[in-house]
Amino acid sequence: MRPLFALLALLALHASPCTHSAAPSSEHPHVLVILADDQGWGDLSLHGNQNLDTPALDRLAAEGAQFENFYVQPVCSPTRAEFLTGRYYPRSGVYSTGAGGERIDADEQLISEVFRDAGYATGAFGKWHNGTQAPYHPNTRGFDEYYGFTSGHWGSYFDAQLDHNGRMVASSGYLPDTLTSAALEFIEEQQKRGRPSFTYLALPTPHSPMQTTDEDWARFQGKKLTSLATEPQKEDHQHTRASLAMVENIDQNVARIFARIRELDIEENTIVVYFTDNGPNGDRYNSAMRGKKGSTDEGGVRSPLFIRYPQAIPAATTIETIAGSIDLLPTLVQLAKIPHTPKQPLDGISLAPALQGRPDWQAPQRLLYSYWSGQVSARSQDYRLDSAGRLYHIPTDRGQLHDLAPSKPDLAAALQAAATNWKEALLTPDAVNPQRPLTIGYAGLAVTQLPARDAQWSGNIKRSAKWPNCSYLTDWTSDADRITFHAHVGQAGAYRATLLYTAPPSAIGTTITLAAAGQQTSAPIQKAHTPPAYGRERDRVDRTQNGESYVKDFAPLALGTLELHPGPVTVELKTTGNAPPQTLEFRMLLLEHSN
Q1: Is the bond into 209 cis (omega within 30 degrees of 0)?
Q2: Which end of the chain, N or C, is more open, meaning fewer C-beta atoms within 10 Å of its C-beta?
Q3: What is the CA 120 to chain-centroid distance, rounded?
């Protein structure tokens, strides 16, 4: 096995220098982190895409620092976990994007907790995707305020049902606009109180469903595309048009943010960060790079990163040093000048000295790792070893066309050994699939949400679509059918149970029973509820092609109260008197602690 120092020496021999600029810093800035969902490097006019116009994002880059070599992970929740913890995502218990694998271990220290403990007001708005129940919910992870959805994506971007501090509420309008407004209101309120704010605005677009406002769509419907995908024969132009319309909407919201912080007279003292969580969610223009969402190649993990902070970062700063989502926590902590003693060793480093142009700072020789679905890739300052062992000189071959492994066997072997060691060290059996049950009644939330996506089921029951997220269970037609949750109770007490359901008139009188810990409580269906599925009328691309569910508005049924005690528990739902064609549908079980 090649020692680490030998690998670093090899890298140094093949490395090119990195440059950066200078400026001073200030105390107690507001911090606003904007994260787009499924937007690729190429989805910006700044990066050569002639299909759209993103003046606000281009301005954000021009007025601060832009990173040329910033890397995230290939999919959503892993990248979010790395931003929140400063650590590679397998260390934090994240191993997938659903079925509990998206949750960050409760003993991890999150960036929200660091800023909160330093006196900041903390708010998260939008897609969370790192846990639904306490202690994984944002309100139990250092965020004073939360408004958004906790699953991987949401089924409707118009007048959506959202989670507000643990309770479901109805929103109004187009979701990215609504979330931006809520984040700005939060910042303004903290400014009035004289308190610095840490705000995480996790916009849900351009992730599917491909829903846009009519105004945004009017600019793209039928538009001829001139900047095309790396493999143009694979491009779905309708999907691309919808994606770009959604990105232009993001740009409009970034313009709104600039206007509002200027009105509040905090523009000079606000750190604004913008990045994305993975490569594009489709084959479209991506600066001729190989790969998209889900890939460990450049096109799947290279993300824009813009950081604007006029008091510390000069305009037109370009950072060539490789950086990753793991670096954001230490970088922002240092820029904000707040104390931080990590509870666990960080994988990331602070890039504040590079942003501030400190002459005594030099980019370290290090590797960044991308991992998903068994594939690992290693990136040095100048080279990428892909998951198949091929070696590319990225400054001259961003498209990964020329394999240099045969001509540089020592370097390829050293990078391969490093990637193998990283994988073996981090991807232990517990990290790949830790045995963590769902949680009920943990401190911090009065209501535990047990959605259909987290359930197990048997009999005739089916899920409304392939992907869990905001799906529901349907074809609940027999008393032999079961819906089950395996969980762990955190606090003893009485729990009031409410079921969200649909039922035809023929199902009136059917009794639904909730059983747990040797107890049960029941209630009959007294009212039919047959809402239509919606979403199709707003979609610009048929979502069923991607296996995604439409949504419905479900009715509540009070099931009564169960007394639960701390420890493992199996929660089961069944019926009495249910028979075809009395098809019930299940969306969620809510358990509200009496205290």
Answers
A1: yes
A2: N
A3: 22
